[in-house]
Amino acid sequence: MKVIDRIIEQARLSPRTIVLCESDDERIVQAALRASKEKIAHIILVGKIKTILKLINDNDATNTLNGITVIDPEHSPLVTEFSQVFFEKRKHKGMTLEAAVLAIKKPLCFANLLVDLGYAHGSVAGAVNTTADVVRNAIQVIGVSPEAKLVSSFFLMIMCQPFHQLKGGIIFSDCGLVIDPNAEELADIAMAAARNAQALLGEEPKVAMLSFSTNGSAKHSAVDKVVNASNIIKAAMPHLAIDADVQLDAAIVADIAEKKGPNSKVKGQSNVLVFPNLEAGNIGYKLAERMAQATAIGPLLQGLTKPANDLSRGCNAGDIFLVIAVTVVQAQTMNHSAREQSSLLTPIPA
To answer: Which of 29, 101, 193, 333 is most buried, judged by most C-beta within 10 A?
Structure first.
């Protein structure tokens, strides 16, 4: 089974509630309708109800919401609760209660409060909002996981074309957020990426800490950072298959791995590629996407208390659907409970 199909099927086995806040965008509505119809998620759309209903009618010939919940922050009875919660979170930064009321009526903030307070399991945004806004608000509202040192990102790279020599999925991290992580941060990024590989690929993670050195073949402070990060990971996750400093060819080609690193635990079969900095990661995933025609799903976020994922503003409805599915699987792994759908969140009848 292809990686994408496996993720969709896993989401369908135990759907979670996912909130989308950019509901005046046709791509979001198309993805929401598909996710609901294919039963991979329970969808909440946040935005102006008339706008959402018009887009739904335009995109669904059956003229039905298919169980989708629509919430307008301007008129929701949750405003009082959400305003107080956000005020408490941000008052140390000088926020007033009046400012909190205005802030939570913005769809992005409202959506993440739905996740934070248990009305939803995860959120997806970024078709309209910038990555900076999506990440900032997720950190402010949902917060960094106690197990993480920072929020980072990863791409799920899918290679399933007939001409691909490597088949399946690989996690690339970090390709979107952390510019120049130190050894401790790089270790945190790698461990989060390994956990996502386990959840999304259904495989034991095999981690390659990428460098221009393999097994100490070069001496440089940049190599030292990668090796130090690897040592931190080995102490925290002693059973993880990891190559400390490894060049890309040795990370993904078994014959080369045998020559360059005969004692390798990964043996050229990496499914997690950890880049030493954002420059390398961003270039790497774009090369794989544009020259190797790999499918890039992301940037996806890791290190948050609950799932909140980003989209490329150039995404299409199919891309959004896949990120919804990934968010459901992440939520399954985190296993947070959500509140029962109360009268506050009752779907509008067709």
So the answer is: 29
